[in-house]
Amino acid sequence: MQLSIIILNYNVRYFLEQCVLSVQKALEGIDGEIIVIDNASSDASCEMMKTKFPHIKLIENEANLGFPKGNNIGVAQAKGEYICILNPDTVVAEDTFSKILNSQLITHNSQLGIIGCKLIDGVGNFLPESKRGVPTPWVAFTKIFGLYKISNYFGKYYAQHLSENESGKVDILVGAFMMMKRELYLEFGGFDENCFMYSDDIDLSYLVLKTGKSNYYFHETSVIHYKGESTVRDGTYMKRFREAMQFFYKKHFKKSWFFDVMMQVGSFVFSLLKKNQQKNEVRIIDEYVVFSRGNLELNLSKKATYLPDFNQFENQPQKNIEIIFDTTTFSFVEIITFMQLNKSKNLSLKNYISSSNYLIGSNNSNDRGQIILL
């Protein structure tokens, strides 16, 4: 078997369904498998998987075991030569896995470590955490206090030596999408289970670097990552994020009094800023534009215009228009391309998932997204 997709889920039933649908399409023509691990969700995620995807391997944990252990459990049952750690709040394009597997990164690179791809949010904006540098004390300082926005000299945290549309070596990749050989993952025992979540991807990326292998950012395929959906950013989030950062620093850097004080203050400020970024945007929709090549009719609250082609769309900046994509007649590649080309138009975007008759999307990478049951 060539590829195993590992999806760890916790209470994001509708995002998980969309994610699995996209992965199924992306695995067509590939000898692959999907493994879903559920960390004791209470939102009927497991019931949905058993009903909608009975042929997919589902592992039901009796408790929330965290990101590292949950993924390790899944990889332990994987059969693929390669694995892809994938968040449930993602949507992959139909050609995502084939492009990577057929690239020279795979076919001509004996020192390959981990591969990450171009991540975008729910309205098409590039997510800079798609490629990062090692968060040394100085790099962390420039990130926490926003110095990377001033000059690329301070841009190591987001690996600004590469543009978003340029593939190349980077130090750190994000756990929302990490593709590598299964034997490489197992060589390190997977994610470090001493860390509940938040620094596990940094830790694994850094361990791979220390062996002399190279991690790569691959820009030729884009994946939607809604970001806010898998984690509620409350007081518990702050505590765990701060502990995770401190865990990474203590594990990999020389201990000193100054270092400890700076990192405790810095990680606290960083976690506080991330918590304060979360917001649920309320947007009043004037009308809908539904892209569908079929005879789709949705029960919507406002006027809806149905179009079979993107070229027929004319944006009206004076109106709050929400665009709905019929995912049964438009490919995820087409949808993702449209999102990126129109990211500056301040559009509200949703995908229609016919298998459970709902709309799904997120207009801000810091909120928890929106599900509309029809």
TrEMBL record:
Q: Which Gene3D superfamilies match?
A: Spore Coat Polysaccharide Biosynthesis Protein SpsA, Chain A
Q: Where are the transmembrane segments?
A: none
Record's keyword terms, sorted: Transferase
Q: Does the keyword Transferase apply?
A: yes
| Entry GO MF terms | transferase activity
Task: Fetch the InterPro entries from UniProt.
Answer: Glyco_trans_2-like, Nucleotide-diphossugar_trans
Glycosyltransferase 2-like domain ranges (all copies):
4-184
Checking PANTHER family in the record gives: RHAMNOSYLTRANSFERASE WBBL
Q: What is this protein called?
A: Glycosyltransferase family 2 protein
In its UniProt entry, the species of origin is given as Flavobacterium tibetense
Record lineage: Bacteria, Pseudomonadati, Bacteroidota, Flavobacteriia, Flavobacteriales
